[in-house]
Amino acid sequence: MGSMISGHRISYLCRAIMAIVIAGILAACGSQQVTVKGDFPAPLMEPMPLRIGIWYDEEFATHEFFDDAAGRSEASWLVKTGEAQVQMWDTVLGSMFVELVPMRGEPGGGEMNEVVDAILVPHIDELQYAIPLHTNVKVYEIWLRYRFDLMRNNGDEIASWTMTSYGKTPTAFMRSDTDAVNLAAVMALRDAGANFITNFARVPDVNNWLEQRFPSSNTAQFPQTNVETAQDQAQSQSQSQSQSENTTAVAVETQEPSPAMAEDTSAEDGS
Amino acid sequence: MITHRFYAALILASVTMLTGCVTSTVDEMVFNEPTMGIGDSTVVILGRRHASDYETEPDFVECVGKHVSSRDSTIEVIGELEFVNALYPWFEPRTAPLRPEDIEKLMAQPPVAAKMAELKTEYMIWIDGSTVRTNSAGSMTCGIGPGGAGCFGFGTWGDDSDYEATIWDFTDRAEVGRLNTTATGQSYMPAVIVPIPIIAPVQGTACDGLGDQLLQFLSSEY
User: Fold this and answer.
1) In CA terms, which of A36, A81, A159, B148 is 20 to 30 Å from A1?
2) What is the mean pLDDT of residues A59-78?
3) What's this model's pTM, rounded to 2 decimal places?
């Protein structure tokens, strides 16, 4: 009798282990979902003397990216960034301008919005990701391309420009793919904030608008990257190379994205 | 009683012997060492994150910081994340200064200067490098059946660490030292029913090597 019970127990144990192993294999080939979560610090800067309205459209506030599995050995990925985007941009813009006013509706859409100096409308044009499985490099990467519209209350455009951001994180012991992609996304969002802060006043149309608003002051006083950064070095290298090769200079990101993402690196430009 | 102690000692000796071998080299070039220590000033250790194909591991940066502060409690090491968050966005990979002279321009911004004064940072140490898997070979098969489970086979892999630490003197806005550490080691995992990992602590050795060199620079006790 004792041996029967023991035998049954072993059988149950084996079935349980087999079930766990099979579930693990199935999960590895299933879908991975990441809802990006992170803490975003407030920028350390003197706020610009502007009252800026912010309008997040539905697509931006609920932004998600889905990538279907290319093969049976790969997993589908769903990366939800909308909530984290709103959290990050609220934090960054809230410290970047003296006042940030959430708009009740789309600018110029007949909505009774509060009167502000300008309304910023961010869009996400593109998101790309790469994991070590794709690239054989020990880093997880996220690349984003934003489009910003700066407009008046009536909907007239002041400026429209694109901006890229990039985040990566190395592989680490006991860190899952989803945790690593989340961390890479948080880094990309932080990079987006840094890029926006340091280059907002450099966008030609924004710069013209600022000069019109503050004719007596030098717009160079507004936050910009005033140290030679990796981005500046990369740009100057790119320009010198391009000049020597007699080709058109293109903007270069601080960190070169992986080869899988390289095709879109020339997207960043002022309008 | 003696038998228990004997077995315990045997197990301890076995575990010690099961660590793989690591070869480590450290180079240093430093100037203006603070012979009296750094007083109540602080040190921040940051990872360089500009390269496209690798990233200085945050764990490694943390390991070096802990190595320094645990061996000389008078040295206050500010955590990387704490520092980078406090000075966001000026020390992000995109915006971080690449040369000591750039600190001057950064300090032209009153909020940044005030925060730096509050943190009392005297030395800023940038670590650049990574640990990579150089080779791997062997195979292992694991199976499960009604009678039990087990593995059989042999695996081996090598790791290489290469890190460089650049020390900036915040007061003089100058680079005052460069330390380099490399470590290499081979790990093994034989398996006869139970896999027995014999791991070479390559990154840990590099961390200890760099940490010791930084201690010699920063601490008055070393």
Assistant:
1) B148
2) 85
3) 0.79
A194 contacts B88? CB cut-off 8 A: yes
Q: Which residue has the tokens 């966005």?
A: B89
SS3 B179: strand
Quick check: A170 and B55 CB within 8 A? Answer: yes
- Chain A: nearest CA to B92, how far in angstroms? 7
Q: Do B130 and A170 touch (CB under 8 A)?
A: yes
Residues of B in contact with A42 (CB under 8 A): 88
B chain contacts of residue A43, beta-carbon cutoff 8 Å: 88-89
Four-residue CA torsion sign, B160, B45, B81, B52: negative
- Write out chain B residues lying below 8 Å of A138, CB-based: 54, 130, 132
Give the pair of three-digit tokens for residue A6: 């023991």
A contact test, residue of B46, B49, B50, B52 with most A CBs within 10 A? B52
Tell me which of B90, B91, B127 to substitute to probe the interface with A (most A C-beta atoms closer than 10 Å). B90
CA-CA-CA-CA torsion sign (A192, A198, A201, A205): negative
Among B57, B94, B132, beta carbon nearest to A229: B94
> What does the H/E/C string look like for chain A?
CHHHHHHHHHHHHHHHHHHHHHHHHHHHCCEEEEECCCCCCCCCCCCEEEEEEECCCHHHHCCEEEECCCCCCCCEEEEECHHHHHHHHHHHHHHHEEEEEECCCCCCCCCCCCCCCEEEEEEEEEEEEECHHHHCCCEEEEEEEEEEEEECCCCCEEEEEEEEEEEEEECCCCCCHHHHHHHHHHHHHHHHHHHHHHHHHHCHHHHHHHHHHCCCCCHHHCCCCCCCCHHHHHHHHHHHHHHHCCCCCCCCCCCCCCCCCHHHHHHCCCC
Task: Identify the band that residue A218 occupies on the pLDDT scale cut at 50, 70 and 90.
Answer: low
